[in-house]
């Protein structure tokens, strides 16, 4: 039986490509994000293209009450979530620590760390009851090594790394898989968001090499869910050929 997948941050980038791939493979999906217009048009398109069911939940992962009420408001049929992709996240700013903006810091910590926790806590009890489930957390190479000016974004992704390990330990007795996927640079809306809409700066992040695409990462997320019951990818670090770690990219 195909499992329902809930994907956070499905209005763009990795999340949107992941929603498309799960739909293509026959899963009913729940897609979430703050931009409801995008959720609705994606829902319409995927239902027509793939004949699957799509539910949309429009909420800000930073607001615990919104997260709780959206997920607890699902019907019994839709509560049966087998796969949770904790993808919603962002970088905001790329400044030396002494020049950092505390609004940027709050956004990153509240979204990447606390938001992931709120969504997980709303969904894990159902998985425990059903004694099965698969949580996929989107970390980053920034959660493996810190790079100059990455300070707080890197800290938030190091937290995702630690939370993924903690989840795996705590959920082990309950038969729930926990996978962390830690990508390097991929060309999505990520850099436009990081540079507060400055397109020139965002594009420059991908100059001189071939970055990964959202579809590359969606393929790996989906693949991790296709393994036999007794196998779990715990941690997958993936970069383009041009990238060696979080701070060394070979540009020509
Ligand atoms: P995008 O900016 O393209 O997409 C980010 C998604 O997250 C959007 O759908 C956005 O939806 C959602 N989101 C952001 N903030 C919130 C919020 N407060 N509440 C709900 N949803 C939110 O970026 P990517 O697809 O690249 O990023 C996805 C994840 O991958 C992030 O966790 C990022 O840190 C991580 N990552 C990205 C890499 C890259 O190079 N692109 C590499 C490694 C990791 P909306 O605005 O509609 O709410
Ligand atoms: C996003 C990729 O290289 O900006 O996690 O940290 S990077």
What would your notes on this structure say?
It is a single chain. The protein has 252 residues and is α/β, with parallel strands linked by helices. It has a single domain, classed as NAD(P)-binding Rossmann-like Domain (Rossmann fold), CATH 3.40.50. 44% of the residues lie in helices and 15% in strands. The protein has helices spanning 13-24, 36-50, 64-72, 76-79, 102-130, 151-171, 190-194, 199-204, 214-224; strands spanning 4-7, 29-33, 54-58, 81-86, 133-138, 176-183, 235-238. It has a seven-stranded parallel sheet with strand order 3-2-1-4-5-6-7, sandwiched between helices. Helix 1 (13-24) runs parallel beside helix 2 and helix 5 packs parallel to helix 6. It is globular. The mean pLDDT is 98.
Task: Write down the CATH class.
Answer: Alpha Beta
Structural class: alpha/beta
Main sheet: which strands, in order across? Answer: 3-2-1-4-5-6-7
What is the fold-level CATH name, i.e. the topology? Rossmann fold
Bound molecules: NADPH dihydro-nicotinamide-adenine-dinucleotide phosphate, 2-hydroxyethylsulfonic acid
Q: Total strand count, please?
A: 7
CATH architecture: 3-Layer(aba) Sandwich
- Supply the number of helical segments: 9
Number of domains: 1
Low-confidence stretches: none
State the separation between the terminal residues, measured CA to CA: 48 Å
């Amino acid at each position: 039986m195909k499992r329902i997948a809930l994907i956070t941050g499905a209005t763009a980038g990795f999340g949107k490509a992941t929603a498309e791939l799960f739909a293509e493979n026959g899963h009913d999906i729940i897609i979430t994000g703050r931009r409801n217009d995008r959720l609705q048009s994606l829902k319409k398109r995927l239902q027509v293209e793939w004949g699957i069911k799509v539910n949309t939940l429009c909420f800000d992962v930073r607001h615990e009450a919104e997260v709780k009420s959206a997920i607890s408001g699902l019907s019994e049929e839709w509560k049966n979530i087998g796969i949770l992709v904790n993808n919603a996240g962002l970088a905001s700013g790329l400044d030396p620590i002494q020049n950092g903006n505390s609004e940027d810091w709050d956004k990153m910590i509240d979204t990447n760390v606390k938001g992931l926790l709120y969504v997980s806590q709303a969904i894990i009890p159902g998985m425990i009851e059903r004694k099965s489930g698969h949580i996929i957390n989107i970390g980053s190479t920034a959660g493996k090594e810190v790079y100059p000016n990455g300070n707080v974004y890197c800290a938030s992704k190091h937290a995702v790394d630690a939370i993924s390990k903690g989840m795996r330990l705590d959920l082990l007795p309950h038969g729930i898989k926990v996978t962390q996927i830690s990508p390097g640079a991929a060309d999505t809306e990520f850099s436009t968001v990081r540079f507060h809409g400055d397109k020139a700066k965002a594009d420059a992040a991908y100059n001189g090499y071939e970055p990964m695409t959202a579809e590359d990462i969606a393929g790996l997320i989906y693949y991790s869910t296709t393994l036999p019951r007794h196998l779990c990818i715990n941690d997958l670090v993936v970069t383009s050929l041009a990238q060696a770690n979080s701070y060394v990219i070979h540009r020509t």
